[in-house]
Design brief:
By secondary structure, the chain is mainly beta. It has helices at 3-13, 104-121, 129-135, 146-154, 207-216, 310-313, and strands at 80-82, 170-171, 195-196, 201-204, 220-227, 252-264, 269-273, 285-289, 300-303, 317-319, 321-323, 333-339, 343-349, 356-364, 370-378, 385-391, 396-402, 407-414, 424-427, 433-438, 444-449, 457-464, 475-476, 494-499, 505-510, 518-523, 534-537, 551-557, 560-566, 575-580, 588-596, 603-609, 614-619, 623-628. The chain has 6 helices and 34 strands. The strands form 9 sheets. Strands 1, 5, 6, 7 and 8 form a 5-stranded antiparallel beta sheet that branches. Strands 10-31-32-33-34 form a 5-stranded antiparallel beta sheet, with no helix packed on it. A 4-stranded antiparallel beta sheet has the order 11-12-13-14, with no helix packed on it. Bound molecules: 2-acetamido-2-deoxy-beta-D-glucopyranose (4 copies). This is Peptidase C1A papain C-terminal domain-containing protein.
């Protein structure tokens, strides 16, 4: 028999799905577990929101009840923890394929950061393995270690040696799409505002501590010996206790690094996400026997207090408030408030203490009179904030807040003295800033400012005519966005909602790559001409990082707030979720902001009452007034 046939036969015998071993021989040598002291749990704070509480309200109609009992660190550990399904929610991004490149270490650390962002901040955040692999200066033949990689991302190593001036962090996938070949570190030009940063990671030596970490905080990265029989592992539907273990005979080709996303004491195994694609193992996962192939001999690593970038959060906030990466746990709110006597102030709510405080001043006194409240966004340009507001002169004024100098400066003014609606602003998937606003002639118009330009261009023709009001309702959605587009130029659809004058609100949208706007559904009844809709995309009802998100909208109508929801991904139409009445005489005049941030699926809203009081609300299945923001204004 010819050699080729022999090889073919042996390949077939090993299974059609057999994958050639792709290693990531770790170097330097993995740290022995015994060299790390047990965790002092009292010194580690708990997560602000437990996974059991996350998204427990995603369906208002049939509110999901949290089942896991995650409370005290002294509670006995449950027999199974699986972040692919905690209380019915998946926190783990899709298994990726490292290809023929020894980059498992980059994949494991990337997967760790992604899942921690989802756990701590609710949002999906696919990161770029290439950004770590190439940023660290590795070539495909080079191996790496979990600890060195985490040190690099955290900025604890000499990153200027890698040509990165600040703490490196890790960029989003589209900023630097992964290819299983050696390439120099090539990334998007606005990488600095598209990088998730990490705080200190935790080396965990003891198996009991590792399980507790999995239960309390999230996944952990592990190193193990890669024996040849690992590549052939498949689930066995007839055996619920089937796990991977070394067969005692097959040879080893070095070490491998992967992410442990849970444990199962009934099987006696870690639940592991590998980086050999979804076609490998159990949809890319494997049950890996405890204490096998050195997996419990070496230190594992967990992570807390990740800091997602403004690019990641931008779909989920509109209007005069946004969530930023500032604060101890990176969950502060930034709020802009205008007052005819005092000008425009930037105030902030500490994400841990919930206390508001003044940060800085955009304008003072009556130097510049604006109508209503400004809109604020976080941008990929050095993470700077940008703000826009409509002026008494019927223009839009733009400001920017520099994160390095901590000051606001006045930028461009535009609008041809024709603007009289409230503006919606987003940073679009091609990094340009887009404003949609109504003109005095009843047209709804799009303005665009290219990245690194100060000029705003009015796009012709207008989006629509016969519009009576516009608002902070422009969303760069993830609908139509191809997350794994290798060209890195895929763009999601833009959506906006305006008031039409016939008692209805009107949805408009356009493909990211086209300038032609389309009319979507009209909805609502008895909506006044001057009602100002505010809209975001939410984080609910998603299966993984590629899932399209639904929309949430709030608008003040005759003194009450109407809260609407639209889940196009489920084939639904706009539907009203709740009508929120105010306890005040005259009620609520306007909604100024809607945010879904890091607080376990809660939404946050800023309103202004008819008598001019600014109020802060939270939605936790239903809306509740939390406080009136007075004194700071
Ligand atoms: C996910 O977990 C819930 C309980 O929290 C359970 O009812 C459900 O069957 C699980 N789903 C899958 C696919 O295992
Ligand atoms: C960091 O790396 C740069 C470039 O390789 C080098 O010039 C510098 O001396 C290094 N700094 C430290 C503290 O090692
Ligand atoms: C505005 O509405 C009126 C009355 O329905 C209609 O005649 C007109 O064509 C509309 N204008 C635009 C620009 O759509
Ligand atoms: C709001 O008030 C106007 C004027 O009274 C009325 O026509 C409209 O139906 C009201 N809208 C709602 C939703 O009640």
């Amino acid at each position: 028999m010819a050699l080729v046939e022999l090889l073919l036969l042996s390949f077939l015998a090993s299974g059609v799905d057999a994958v050639p071993p792709r290693r990531g021989v770790s170097w330097p040598a993995p740290v022995p577990a015994s060299s790390v002291p047990p965790i002092e749990w009292s010194a580690i704070g708990s997560l602000i929101y437990k996974p059991s509480e996350s998204f427990s309200h995603q369906n208002t109609a049939d509110k999901k009840v949290a089942t896991a009992n995650i409370n005290s660190v002294s509670a006995p550990l449950p027999p199974v923890v699986d972040w692919r399904n905690r209380s019915g929610i998946n926190f783990i991004t899709t298994p990726q394929d490292q290809g023929a490149c020894q980059s498992c270490w980059a994949f494991a650390v990337t997967a760790l950061i992604e899942s921690q962002v989802r756990i701590e901040h609710s949002v999906w955040s696919k990161r770029s393995e290439a950004d770590v692999h190439d940023g660290i200066g590795a070539i495909c033949e080079t191996t790496g270690s979990a600890e060195e990689t985490l040190q690099y991302v955290a900025g604890n190593t000499n990153s200027s040696a890698h040509g990165v001036s600040e703490k490196p962090g890790i960029a989003d996938w589209s900023c630097d799409p992964y290819e299983a070949v050696t390439t120099p570190h090539a990334h998007c030009s606005d990488r600095s505002g598209r990088t998730t940063h990490i705080g200190n990671f935790q080396a965990i030596g003891e198996v009991e501590d590792q399980k507790k970490w999995l239960y309390e905080y999230g996944p952990i990265v592990a190193t193990f010996i890669l024996y040849d029989n690992f590549g052939e592992w498949k689930p066995d539907p007839t055996n619920p206790h089937h796990v991977y273990a070394w067969d005692g005979t097959s040879g080893n080709t070095g070490n491998h690094i992967a992410l442990i996303v849970g444990y199962d004491d009934e099987r006696g195994a870690w639940i592991m996400k590998n980086s050999w694609g979804k076609g490998w193992g159990d949809d890319g996962f494997v049950y890996f026997a405890y204490d096998n192939a050195n997996i419990d001999m070496w230190v594992k690593y967990g992570l807390r207090n990740v800091n997602p970038d403004p690019w990641t959060r931008r779909r989920h906030q509109s209007g005069n408030m946004m969530q930023s990466g500032n604060g101890e746990t990176h969950r502060n709110f930034e709020l802009l408030l205008s007052d005819p006597a005092k000008g425009i102030r930037h105030i902030s709510r500490d994400g841990d203490t919930s206390q508001w405080g003044v940060v800085s001043q955009l304008t003072s006194g009556d130097a510049l009179v604006i109508r209503g409240q400004p809109s604020i966004i976080g941008t990929s340009m050095n993470r700077d904030f940008h703000a826009v507001a409509v002026t008494e002169g019927n223009n839009i004024q733009q400001w920017a807040y520099s994160q390095s100098s901590k000051t606001w400066s006045q930028l461009s003014s535009f609008g041809q003295s024709k603007v009289d609606g409230f503006p919606g602003i987003v940073q679009s998937d091609d990094s340009s800033l887009i404003v949609v606003v109504k003109h005095t002639d009843g047209t709804l118009n799009e303005y665009r400012q290219e990245a690194n330009s100060v000029a705003w261009t009015l796009i012709q023709p207008p989006i629509a005519g016969n519009i009576t009001q516009s608002g902070a309702s422009l969303v760069q959605s993830n609908i139509g966005f191809d997350m794994y587009d290798r060209s890195g130029i895929s763009q999601g659809r833009l959506y906006t909602v305006a008031t039409r004058g016939d008692g209805k609100m009107q949805t408009f949208w356009r493909e990211g790559s086209s300038k032609a706007w389309q009319e979507g559904d009209g909805f609502g009844e008895g909506i006044p001409d001057d009602a100002v809709p505010v809209m975001i995309q939410d984080n609910f009802d998603t299966i993984d990082e590629t899932s399209a998100c639904g929309f949430q909208l709030a608008v003040a109508v005759n003194g009450s707030v109407e809260h609407w929801r639209w889940r196009p991904q489920m084939g639904e139409k706009w539907e009203m979720v709740q009508k929120v009445a105010s306890d005040k005489e005259g009620g609520i005049k306007q909604v100024w902001s809607l945010v879904q941030g890091s607080f376990a699926g809660k939404m946050h809203m800023i309103t202004e009452s008819v008598d001019g009081v600014i109020e802060y609300w939270e939605w936790d299945g239903k809306w509740a007034l939390v406080e009136k923001i007075t004194g700071l204004r």
